[in-house]
């Protein structure tokens, strides 16, 4: 528990310093690095299950899917497809490239598994992570750093749901939520995690909105309510990783982060919450601009 707390504190300090002094470019590179490491660990777990994905090929496509839209948007915005459309096009291109690459597999018995595992890794990690980068660009007309703070809100709500669930579940958890997937999770912990996540999200808006770091339409009530579905989806995202790890017969996806595990153990709750948060934020900004 102590190692996990120290690692969490160090990571939050590093995130704040990164965003404060290096801004959006560094945030995009850091997001891409986390996505590539997560995809690498996912491919490793899939390989343990016997699926044998195109490991390096898939990682290359994943990194390209995250960096190319940002580069085009920054260096040649006149060629940028509005919103996440370019990444959707790159996802379609990834399917084509993986099918072409599949022709080199001589063992007919593993072709389908290889294709499915490779595409799952691309769709589940970099494609979902690109919504984090899309959020970096969301803002109203008042402050260009609002997108960065929206990502901070997303990460805080997603991760503190897990922290709250752990603390409340350890203290008063009695009813198992999913004993065959994650025996330590309880319904009491789920409720506690959602309440903590909502409180943390609301506190961020309370302290930083007066300085313009959150959109004016992002009210305290809206933050408290929006945190509820994000926290619930974070729990689902965490359970999906538990299913994958259980199938691969491992406890942690890696050992790079003391007390936490690997990159996948760090990013698991953000994978499914990122697209949901992007939709909520984009809708909120549209309402605010109406």
- Tertiary shape: globular
- The largest sheet has its strands arranged as 1-2
Q: Roughly what percent helix?
A: over 70%
How many strands in all?
2
- Strand and helix order: HHHHHEEHHH
Number of helices: 8
Name the poorly predicted regions.
Answer: none
Radius of gyration: 19 Å
Major sheet details: 2 strands, antiparallel
Mean pLDDT: 88
Number of domains: 1
Distance between the termini: 47 Å
Approximate strand percentage: under 5%
Structural class: mainly alpha
Oligomeric nature of the chains: single chain
Give an overview in words:
This protein is mostly helical. The chain has one domain (2-289). The protein is 75% helix and 3% strand. A two-stranded antiparallel sheet has the order 1-2. A hairpin with a 3-residue loop joins strand 1 and strand 2 (182-186). Helix 5 crosses helix 7. The chain is globular and about 60 Å long. The model has no long low-confidence stretch (mean pLDDT 88).
